[in-house]
Specification:
heterodimer; A: alpha/beta; Rossmann fold; 9-stranded mixed beta sheet; globular; B: alpha+beta; MutS, DNA mismatch repair protein, domain I; DNA polymerase, domain 1; Dna Ligase, domain 1; 7-stranded antiparallel beta sheet; 5-stranded mixed beta sheet; 15 helices; 21 strands; 31% helix
Chain lengths: 291, 501
């Protein structure tokens, strides 16, 4: 209870600060992230919103667990997987947004994707592969130090790091630095750390999107994930309007909003799939886990 | 009389290599500027059009490159600097020769013959086979190295006249107009020229011809632009007694770094590799070796690299002397204020410099192998298709091979996470050798909802290490996860090789 109360208080303070800063920056730059201000106006075109939202600041991504992990205590004993495809997509967004030769730095071997997905084979586009630096830092302290160092370097455009084990002080340090340097940082974190305090500007929980037999013929060939917005500074969230389903385009190495779910966010489709999963496996659907 | 050596590069390529032509382009027409000896033997001459030269080399492979005299001059100067290990004074002789003063070196190298043998071997080792002549004057050495018949020849003081007599007048380094004038009156060799009265030569061909003759026979001095050897950059501080206080040693290193940077600034250079040696009483000296990915004389950056290493040193025995030595340095490009803010090469230079400093700091703390880029490799084997490459220099980052050059197109999708070691799995197929219908992996059983494949990858059977081919399937599990599984055709065993996450 105390943690939740503290978190709520911190979020309120952050949202006030963020709203003030946002207003100032909008006045200066003529419009930054098109962040909606009411729960019902969360954008349906998530990927377009991301382009504005992920321009600066720290963003936490809580990754995937193998199926059938009941509670957090047992989950901590199992290996988790960062949402690599989403991180690759975010890396591409940064490459396409920047006109200079700035680099995308991947910190921590756990969040290194298989390099093939860094190449968009259809367009023979290998900019992300060419402009990616990989840093093998295993300890949390070393990862934090490397993140800090990379953010200070003008040649780095974005940092994608393994943020497991980062405490509130560490995320606060990264968030302040990322905002002062106007760079985005994407921290991949284990799903059980979503209840811990964090200074991230936004936090997202990624889960496997269960297969739907009825859509098998049409949408069964591409991997899909459900993405749930846990918290976003300055954006009050409505419980029913914060879940999206994303689909990985194998040919393009890019993410798309899943076609049947590109209708207004928070559709009941996810709810209908949950009971079938609950029956097939003891794990609750990720988007239903408490934030 | 000083002893001069002239080395001229032999330009004949190996028989299996193509003939080499260097060309210039003027008014849209390519002309031969220089060629190798094989092309010369085929009749190719400077000034000839490239089309004409190709017709003469009809039955030979021809390699054509643009003629870049400025770059060649720079390379020749580098070679002259390298040759300073063979002679105390070396001067580049453009476009393709070196002049060395080996006066007094015969005792050091065990005689002139052995010295020339060493020079020839050294040039061979760096793939610059050269013709060498040692003679009393640079003019005579030049003439015999370029127009003599022997690859290595040594001419004594008394035999200069005899050795030169049969050489063409061009061996005297005469202007082209004088050579034509001599040819018109029927004088083709140096011997014929020397038989003419000296006064008449000056009257008919100018004083330049007498100057060249006098230089060849040592009657007139010759000015050469010798390469100046660089003194090594070493600075040191010695204490009266062993110092054990870390702060004092840190201060000493700071002082030495300042001195070193002053010297580097004078030479317009940056340091790429340097070493700090701590001499301690009663024990082996301790060394800190620091490599940079780019030349730098940024004090703050260098100190950032030195300080953490310094803090890890064991100084319990005390330090009596600290020496800082530059092992490798490179010229820094001149810093120029950008005319327009944020434009052009100045910004790019700053970008490269910032990236280099980042890599240096990361490498200093995490190790050089911990910072890498990924390079594609020409193979279909998924686990070998990309290899990490470390940074030697920051320039190597952008010089690495583009993905599309010579790389196989990876057809088919690949997972976002590839396991370092494929996970064994049990798979049940409805039809023999068919797609998976049920899979047991990591102690759990899954019904396969959907599968795509197979994609057959043949492993490199020709090297004998791996003979099996694999059939890969994309497999969807009920919880929504996708796995990349394969069956080894040789053994029929199944493995999970990756997943989409």
């Amino acid at each position: 209870m105390l943690v939740e109360a503290l978190q709520a208080l911190k979020d309120w303070c952050d949202s006030v600060m963020f709203a003030t800063e946002l207003a100032e920056r909008r006045a200066m730059e003529g419009g930054l992230p098109n962040v909606p201000t009411s729960g019902n106006s969360l954008p349906t075109d998530l990927l377009e919103w991301w382009k504005a939202l992920f321009r600066v600041g720290l963003h936490g991504w809580y990754g995937l667990l193998p199926p059938e992990q009941g509670d957090d205590r047992s989950a901590r004993q199992t290996p988790w997987t960062p949402p690599l495809c989403i991180l690759v997509h975010l890396g591409w967004e940064r490459i396409q947004a920047s006109e200079d030769m700035s680099r995308v730095v991947w910190i921590g071997p756990r969040c290194f994707p298989y390099p093939r997905v860094l190449v968009r084979e259809a367009q023979r586009d290998c900019r992300l592969l060419d402009r990616s630096l990989f840093i093998m830092a295993r300890e949390a302290a070393a990862r934090l130090w490397a993140t800090d160092l990379c953010l200070r370097c003008p040649a780095v455009g974005a940092v994608i790091a393994d943020g497991s084990g980062f405490d509130m002080a560490a995320t606060r340090r990264v968030q302040l630095l990322a905002r002062s340097r106007s760079k985005p940082v994407f921290l991949a974190r284990p799903p059980w750390e979503r209840t811990e305090l964090s200074a991230a500007q936004s936090r997202w929980l990624v889960g496997w999107q269960p297969a739907d037999d009825s859509e098998q013929n049409v949408h069964g060939v591409n991997p899909r994930w459900s993405v749930k917005l846990l918290r976003c500074k300055g954006v009050p969230l409505d419980e029913d309007h914060k879940v999206w389903v994303l689909e990985w385009d194998r040919a393009q190495s890019a993410l798309h909003l899943s076609a049947p779910l590109s209708r207004p966010a928070g559709d009941a489709t996810l709810e209908t799939t949950a009971p079938r999963h609950a029956a097939g496996s003891p794990r609750e659907a990720p988007h239903r886990a408490s934030a | 009389m000083p002893r001069g050596v002239h080395a001229k590069r032999l330009t004949a390529p190996p028989p299996e290599d193509p003939a080499m032509l260097l060309v210039t382009t003027s008014q849209g027409v390519q002309h031969v500027a220089a060629c190798c000896e094989r092309a010369e033997r085929a009749g190719v001459r400077s000034g000839m059009t490239l089309a004409h030269a190709r017709s003469l080399l009809n039955d030979t492979d021809v390699h054509v490159e643009p003629f870049t005299p400025e770059r060649d001059a720079g390379r020749l100067r580098q070679l002259a600097r390298w040759a300073l290990r063979l002679a105390p004074c070396v001067a580049p002789d453009h476009p393709d020769g070196l002049l060395m003063d080996i006066t007094g070196c015969e005792r050091l190298f065990g005689g002139e013959h052995r010295h020339l043998g060493l020079i020839a071997t050294s040039f061979d080792r760096i793939h610059f086979p050269a013709r060498l002549t040692a003679a009393p004057t640079f003019g005579s050495a030049w003439a015999l190295a370029r127009y003599g018949k022997e690859r290595i020849s040594i001419i004594g003081n008394e035999s200069v006249h005899a050795a030169l007599a049969s050489l063409p007048v061009a061996a005297l380094r005469l202007d082209w107009e004088i050579q034509i004038a001599l040819f018109e009156v029927g004088i083709t060799t140096i011997g014929e020229l020397l038989d003419l009265p000296r006064e008449q030569l000056a009257a008919r061909f100018g004083t330049g011809i007498l100057q060249r003759i006098d230089q060849v026979f040592g009657r007139m001095a010759e000015h050469l632009d010798f390469i100046e050897p660089e003194s090594p950059l070493i600075v040191s501080l010695t204490a009266d007694e062993p110092v054990k206080q870390y702060e004092s040693i840190e201060r000493a290193v700071e002082t030495l770094l300042s001195e070193l940077l002053v010297e580097l600034t004078k030479r317009d250079k940056g340091v790429q590799h340097f070493e700090i040696v701590f001499n301690r009483s009663g024990s082996e000296p301790q060394r800190l070796s620091i490599r940079l990915t780019h030349a730098s004389r940024n004090r703050m950056h260098l100190w950032t690299l030195i300080r953490p290493r310094l803090e890890c040193m064991d100084i319990s025995h005390g330090v009596e002397e600290v020496t800082m030595k530059v092992l490798r340095s490179a010229r820094l490009s001149h810093e120029q204020l950008a005319f327009l803010p944020g434009s052009g090469s100045a910004q790019q230079e700053a970008h490269v410099s910032a990236l280099g400093e980042l890599l240096d700091q990361l490498s200093a703390r995490l190790g050089r192998e911990a910072v890498c880029f990924i390079e594609p490799v020409q193979t279909h084997v998924p686990e070998h298709a990309f290899v990490p490459r470390g940074f030697v220099t920051v320039a190597a980052i952008d010089r690495k091979r583009p993905y599309h050059e010579g790389e196989p197109t990876v057809v088919g999708s690949r997972p976002s996470r590839l396991f370092a070691v494929p996970d064994p799995a049990q798979v049940f197929s409805i039809v023999p050798d068919g797609p998976p219908a049920w899979i047991r992996w990591r102690g759990r059983e899954y019904v396969v909802l959907h599968s795509a494949g197979p994609e057959r990858l043949a492993l490199p059977w020709w090297n004998g290490s791996q003979r099996a081919a694999r059939d890969y399937y994309d497999v969807q599990l009920p919880h929504g996860g996708w796995l990349w599984v394969y069956r080894e055709l040789e053994t029929g065993r199944w493995f999970v090789h990756g997943e989409w996450a």
